[in-house]
Structures are given as structure tokens and as C-alpha cells.
Design goal:
By secondary structure, the chain is α/β, with parallel strands linked by helices. The chain contains nine helices and nine strands. It starts with 5 loop residues before the first strand and ends with a strand. It binds iron/sulfur cluster (SF4). Iron/sulfur cluster binds next to loops.
Length: 205
């Protein structure tokens, strides 16, 4: 069966790089929508598709209908495929500089790679959107249900990643899903204090 490598939402083209996740976020629609997203089946077959096929799909979609933004965001954490993501982002910036390139992430890239990955994103990405969701470390664990390697240091690592991105990328945004028992204004405070933007998002049923 053909895999959905790229899909559209509003004025963006979204890239579905991987189905791997370091967390099982309670708000994630991949569970309730059974890997479907507004008519697209985002379940990948387990083999991770090479960069060339993403670029081919990007060029094909661009010929069909233009878009103003490319977003690394599927049912998985794109930073697992850091090198591939950066290659695709740089291809787009070099060949189509007017298209904005953004990463949506759960913010655990530094912990996944065991180093600061923000410098890798420079020059390819225009924006990063980091899903923090709470200012409380134990609530962070409860909401995101991280795999064992990410439980203890996950929350602090997301904060560190935000701080690393702010000086290096043109636009860093912290996001929080509106949900009962969560004070999103505290996430806003964290974001603004380090010079990031903030956006709250509705819970999708
Ligand atoms: S990291 Fe993203 S795709 Fe994975 S469970 Fe969380 S919200 Fe869903």
C-alpha cells in the first residue's frame, strides 16, 4: 500500500517523516483518529523512506497546487530523523526560498541525540513549534507518558531545547494544548521569559 509521505492542511504541505515517538501524549489524535488525519492515512510501513522520495513528493505537490509553508509534522517525532529532516529543509531553502519551513516537535530532540541539536536546524528551518503543554514537571510526565529514557530528564530537556532554539532560529514558539487542570498561562510565562512566542491550541476530540 502506498504510504502518505506528504499531506496538506490549510496552506501548508506537511511531511510525515516517521511514526516513532518518545512519548504517548494523552492529547494525541493519532490514537483517537486511528492514525488517520482528515482523510490521510499517516501509518507508515516501518521502513523509513529516503530523502529523495520526500523531495519527489514535495515537487509533485508543488506542481499540483502551490503552498506557502512546509511543516515537519506527522504521527511521529521528526527529530528522530534529524539528518534527513535537515537535508530536506536545506533543499527547500536553496531551491524555493520563499517557502517557510517549520518543525512541530515534542521538544525531546536534545535528549534523543544526547546533545544540543539546535545548531543543526539553523539554515534550514525558519521556525520551530515546541509542544510544552504544562509548566509542572510531574504533570508533564502524566500528560506525555514518556518512554522510560525520557521520564526523568524529559521536562528539563524540553525547556533546555526551547532556550537553545531561541537565539539560533528566526522563530521559536512554545505551544500548549488547552485541557482541564492545566494552567496554560504558566507556559506562556516560560515562553516569554526566554524570548519565545506562545500559542495555546484547542484539544481536538
Ligand atoms: S510526540 Fe507527537 S505524534 Fe507522538 S504521541 Fe506525542 S503528539 Fe502524538
Amino acid at each position: 500500500m502506498e504510504q502518505t509521505l506528504t499531506y496538506r492542511y490549510q496552506d501548508g504541505l506537511y511531511l510525515n517523516l516517521t511514526n516513532r515517538c518518545p512519548t504517548a501524549c494523552k492529547f494525541c489524535i493519532k490514537f483517537t483518529w486511528e492514525m488517520n488525519y482528515r482523510g490521510y492515512d499517516l501509518k507508515l510501513n516501518g521502513k523509513e523512506t529516503p530523502v529523495s522520495e520526500f523531495i519527489e513528493s514535495f515537487e509533485k505537490e508543488k506542481k499540483i497546487k502551490p503552498f506557502s509553508e512546509v511543516v515537519f509534522c506527522g504521527y511521529g517525532e521528526s527529530t528522530y530523523r534529524l539528518q534527513e529532516m535537515v537535508q530536506i529543509a536545506k533543499y527547500i531553502k536553496n531551491n524555493h526560498p520563499s517557502i517557510k519551513v517549520r518543525l512541530n516537535t515534542i521538544g525531546l530532540g536534545n535528549l534523543i541525540w544526547g546533545r544540543n541539536i539546535a545548531p543543526d536546524l539553523q539554515g534550514g528551518l525558519d521556525a520551530v513549534s515546541i509542544s510544552l503543554n504544562t509548566a509542572d514537571p510531574s504533570q508533564w510526565v502524566e500528560i506525555h507518558q514518556p518512554a522510560k529514557p525520557y521520564r526523568e530528564k524529559g521536562f528539563e530537556s524540553v525547556l533546555e531545547f526551547i532556550r537553545c532554539c531561541v537565539p539560533l532560529l528566526p522563530e521559536t514558539t512554545v505551544t500548549a494544548i488547552e485541557q482541564p487542570g492545566v494552567d496554560v498561562s504558566r507556559c506562556r510565562d516560560i515562553a516569554l521569559k526566554v524570548g519565545a512566542h506562545f500559542r495555546s491550541r484547542p484539544w481536538l476530540e
